[in-house]
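Page 37, continued from 36.
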């Protein structure tokens, strides 16, 4: 679990400097409970948690140019295997990793406090 947390934190911190066209196909994600397809389409953004429960979170996030989303407040589902780094509560500033679900909609795959 510690190795997974370190790997995810490192990838979240490196995301802002990575190109939008970065391929995740050469990275070792064997410790993450996400498919290669989910990792390939993953995007990162900073957000404020407005509310959160066991299934979803209402967040106010920065623009996500990789997928054409402006800054907005929205509800996002939590992936069944969401990785929560540290204590996340309402009002927290976080970095989100959004992944595509099986139905093609983005959901929160991981979140880490700022």
């Amino acid at each position: 679990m510690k190795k997974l947390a370190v790997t995810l934190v490192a990838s979240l911190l490196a995301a802002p400097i990575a190109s939008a066209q970065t391929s995740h196909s050469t990275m070792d994600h064997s410790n993450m409970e996400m498919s290669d397809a989910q990792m390939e389409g993953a995007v990162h953004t900073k957000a404020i948690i407005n509310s959160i429960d066991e299934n979803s979170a209402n967040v106010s996030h920065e623009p996500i140019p990789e997928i054409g989303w402006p800054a907005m407040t929205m509800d996002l589902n939590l992936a069944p295997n969401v990785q929560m780094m540290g204590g996340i509560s309402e009002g927290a500033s976080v970095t989100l990793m959004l992944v595509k679900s099986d139905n093609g909609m983005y959901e929160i795959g991981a979140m880490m406090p700022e």
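The helical segments are 2-14, 36-40. Flag for discussion at group meeting. Residues 4-10, 12-32 have pLDDT under 50 and may be disordered.
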